[in-house]
Design goal:
The protein has 61 residues and is mainly β. The protein is 0% helix and 66% strand. The N and C termini lie far apart (28 Å). It binds zinc ion (ZN). The site of zinc ion (ZN) has 8 residues, from loops.
Amino acid sequence: MNYVVELEVQCPFCGEIFPSRLDAMEGTNSMIEDCAVCCHPIQLVVECDGGEVVAVEIGRS
Ligand SMILES: [Zn+2]
C-alpha cells in the first residue's frame, strides 16, 4: 500500500526549505528532486516504515 506524505526539504545548495510530496513506500527509497527555489537537483534518501517517513537524508546529487 502506498501513502503520499508531505515533508519539508532543506535545499543543500541555497538553504531554502520547501515542501515536497512523495510516496512513502516501504523500505528505503532514493530519488532526485529539483529544488523549487534554485532548481538544483537534490538527492533524497527516504526511509519508510508502516507508511510513515522515519528518516530523510538530503545530499547533493
Ligand atoms: Zn535550492
